[in-house]
Amino acid sequence: MPTAQSDTHTGLESPRGIWWRPAHRAEKTWVAIAFAWCMVLFAMMPLWHLKGNQNPSGIRRRVEPAAFYRRTQEFIKQYQVGDDRGMPIVAPPPGSEVYLMAQTFMWTPILKLEQGKEYTLHLSSLDVNHGFSLYPVNVNFQILPGYDYGLRVTPTASGDFRIICNEFCGIGHHTMVGRVIVVDSAGQEVVFRGGNHE
Ligand code: CUA
Fold first, then answer.
1. Which domains can be identified in the chain, with CATH numbers?
2. Residue 105 to residue 35: CA distance in whole angstroms
3. Around 89, how many Cα atoms within 13 Å sit in the side-chain half-sphere?
């Protein structure tokens, strides 16, 4: 039964309390600081895009997984230089189109690149969503089936790097490790195991 002193707030009646009193100075100050910081972070987005020097080149196109598979096989045939327990090691010339295929639970092939040279790295998946994570460098990308994600990459350090899948893709997810070998200008590869340069 409705009464004049009802406790239910209908939106027509003011709730009880002191919410209409002006905010304390300290509260106003904090709101002002928070707002100013929001604006700084907001400005950082376009600024970082222009000045951050770490944007992916963003070449994207649709690709049928079967077509990407065929293109990768062709790439392997063209530039294969060896193999590691059956996994082909491919050394494409600088400036070329490089293909790396993700599937449960492997990365094909092993890439051998030169330090300081640019390549266009094409990434795609044959089945589900995988995550490209280059260890120990902080480089991460989503690898999706049906999309060819092209990245202009220039290896800045030589070494024997691991590609770790960082997107849960099934029972063998934790075993999905690939390899990128980067040789320096003298053609030497620095091999490190267990985090130590040898
Ligand atoms: Cu592929 Cu997890």
1. 1-52 (no CATH), 59-183 (2.60.40.420)
2. 46
3. 12
Q: Is 165 in the pocket of ligand 1 (CB under 6 A)?
A: yes
SS3 label, residue 26? helix
CB 165 within 8 A of CB 173: yes
The token pair at 106 is 């492997």
Spacing of C-alpha 145 from chain mean position:
15
Cα 76 from Cα 89, distance rounded (Å): 8
- Report pLDDT digits (tens) over 65-120: 999 999 999 999 999 999 999 999 999 999 999 999 999 999 999 999 999 999 99
Please, are residues 84 and 179 in contact by the beta-carbon 8 Å criterion?
A: yes
Is the distance from the beta carbon of residue 167 to the nearest atom of ligand 1 less than 6 Å? Answer: yes
